[in-house]
Amino acid sequence: MKKTALFLLIILPLLTIGQPKKDKSMEHILKNKNLEIHIDLPLENYQFSRFDWTGKITSLIYKGVPISTIERMNEDEEDNFGKGFYNEFGIEMPVGYNEIKEGEWFPKIGVGALKKVGKEYSFSKAYETEPADFKIITDMNKLLVECVSQSVNGYAYVLKKEIELLESSFVIRYYLHNTGVKTIITNEYTHNFLAINKEFMGSNYILKFPFDIKPELFGATVNPEEKVELGQNEITFKNTPNEQFFFSNLSGSKNVDAHWELINTKSKIGISETGSFTTNKVNLWGWKHVLSPELFFDINLRPDQTIEWSRTYNLFDLE
After folding, report:
1. Is residue 9 over pLDDT 50?
2. What is the DSSP letter of 77?
3. DSSP-derived secondary structure letter, 97
4. DSSP class of residue 318?
5. Is residue 196 helix, strand or coil?
6. Is the pLDDT of residue 249 over 60?
7. What is the chain's Cα-based Rg?
8. DSSP H or E segment with residue 30
9. What is the per-residue pLDDT across 254-289, written as a single tens digit (0 to 9) for each?
């Protein structure tokens, strides 16, 4: 069995700071007859250094049925961790981290400037943060959040995230403009925290991919109870796993369509994500209460360049 240091960080206790109980009256909600999307604005609730603060989608409801969940089951600390459809830039190495000394600042896209602590970066650390500037524009079926960064060691950017609600789907669009003097090299993914109708992982779930799954080429395989079963292009469960599981590079680093589909045969509901890009990195993390397929988007952006990409989520009923 191969394991990576990245997963070992996942199972270590996270350094957290207490936050006040969430005030749900401060949520921004996009809603129609089929979908309800709850969104925290940048300076509301989760304010740690890992996940992007722009348009934090905390929960998704489809025809009255919850589709998303939280990273950990302790609701008293839910705003300390991931939930819903949080995304992140640079999970393994943020921009410019290796260029600076301890105590100096580096940019974390979508958050602000973080103070370097330790030789190695760890997404699980709660780094001291100087938030970026955020602007918000709301509409009937859209939310646009703009993040304007500080200039940090030659790096600077403007990030715009637009969330648009459609009939039975929603689209997240990203616009990243490099306003600094150094090239931005990083990646972005959405850590989809899924649990249809709050049902634990088990035989009712099927996760499908549009490519052959190649276990012999995985970067990491962590399946301690062997309850997660790998098929040719789908993943299922023997029983509910009590321990965390993790698989990296599901396509063996082959460039593939950025897509997955999760169905629950008991609730007869499915959800899919489709990126506007191809990807050579697809990871899967989960626990007994949550499943998180992750499609990575690579970014190599020279000064004064702009890049755009999107993620479309579709909800549907099983016949």
Report:
1. no
2. G
3. G
4. -
5. helix
6. yes
7. 19
8. strand 28-31
9. 999 999 999 999 999 999 999 999 999 999 999 999
